[in-house]
Specification:
Layout: E1 2-3, E2 11-14, E3 23-26, E4 33-38, E5 47-53, E6 62-72, E7 77-83, E8 92-94, E9 103-110, E10 118-125, E11 132-142
Antiparallel strand pairs: 1-11, 2-5, 3-4, 4-11, 5-10, 6-9, 6-11, 7-8, 7-10
Length: 148
């Protein structure tokens, strides 16, 4: 499953009961866009959630979720990833990003009898006033995550 935002093939949903929405942002090189939350949106500790609905994941299998992310700006906030069947705790979290670089996140998804039917990217507003939290190139592959 390849869910980059330029193609629009995946089922992305803005969550209705959060504080703000993620919005498309143009890539610097002009090759499509990514989803972003600017640092000045909302108030400290406000949350914005973007959910990817997953269908047809096979039970008792392994998957690897790979995505590009960046936390650009001083004290911009936190980016967390939640799986639908593990609602309480994030399976991935990042809160430091003093440069503008894009990095790669990887999450192993092990399907038991209950299958994961969604992945949620949550951004939490920090104290900073400049920068953004961005997500792009979300890919789900079958099997374990490859080594770097």
């Amino acid at each position: 499953v390849d869910c980059s935002f330029s193609r629009g093939v995946c089922d992305w949903k803005q969550e209705a009961d959060d504080d703000f929405d993620w919005n498309p942002a143009d890539r610097d090189r002009g090759d499509g866009y990514y989803m972003a939350v600017p640092a000045f949106v909302g108030h400290k500790k406000d949350m914005g959630r973007l959910k990817l609905l997953l269908t047809e994941l096979k039970p008792k299998s392994s998957y690897c979720l790979i995505f590009s992310y960046r936390l650009a700006g001083d004290r911009v906030g936190k980016l967390r990833v939640f799986l639908a069947n593990k609602k309480t705790a994030p399976v991935w979290e990042q809160n430091n990003g003093n440069d503008e670089r894009w990095r790669t996140g990887k999450i192993e998804i092990f399907q038991g009898a209950e299958t994961t039917n969604s992945v949620t990217f949550e951004s939490e507003r920090g104290k900073g006033k400049t920068g953004e939290i961005g997500v792009d190139n979300v890919v789900l592959i079958s099997g374990l995550c490859p080594e770097d």
